[in-house]
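Quick one:
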Amino acid sequence: MSNDPLLQPYQLKHLTLKNRIMTTSHEPAYPEDGMPKDRYRAYHAERAKAGIALAMTAGSAAVSRDSPPVFNNILAYKDEVVPWVQNLTDACHEHGAAVMIQLTHLGRRTRWDKGDWLPAVTPSHNREPSHRAFVKKIEDWDIARIITDYADAAERMQAGGMDGIELEVFGHLMDQFISPLTNTLEAPYGGSMENRMRFSMDVLRAIRKRVGDDFIVGIRFTVDEDQAGGTTFEDGITVCNTWRDSGMVDFLNVIRGRIHTDPAMTDVIPVQGMKNAPHLDFAGSVRTATGLPTFHAAKIPDVATARHAVSAGLLTWSA
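Output:
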């Protein structure tokens, strides 16, 4: 048995993961007609073959028709996705890797002239600077429909053999509800922190009703927006602990910052020439405060730093 901290197994609920190395969700733009066909399967299967313990696929798969993808993403709202997901899952399982998928509704982070040309919805009339969609302020029936869409998509991923899902609460619709910068609704989905969290809690309850308690459900979350008027670190920890105490969330994948502009995104996902691992201590603080299994990926490019992150207890997983 190796003493390398990156090569130690980890028990995530019922799932035994053979080491602490994963690929975090990203979009290679390989889907064909919105489906993860042969090229997409081969892309992830090669990483599984190389020895990673967990492939987090998609970045992110769309749960609703009014969340048209902007990067040729997987269309998780279509029933025909299930057999393609099964092929992908089987190919990774063959090499001993667990497989999950990131699901999302983009909210305002899309364009109006994509997909079925439906209005983008968000909990305010505020446009995102990056994508510039003229948004419709979300209404009650939109909320109810999208909650069902999340549950439907999660059920499809379970039917396709996935080991779990990760919900994107990071600049997308669920985060747009939580952040006071992007939610101007009145109660019951706007105003207080409890109200702004209501959408994510309703989504989690709907998903759990469909997939049961054993299926793994995690969240990638902007714990600290690092902007005046936005979600503070203290707010983010309150949100995380509420999810934890609900018993419906099995892991966190933590982010710091915003992605509404390209400059903001480079602080969250640093580019070449920027400081390595800028949010590692922050991620460790989140893990300490919540006690949840914690993933994190923000320019940790070397093995030594990844080993330190795991051995020092800052992270459960490194990408």
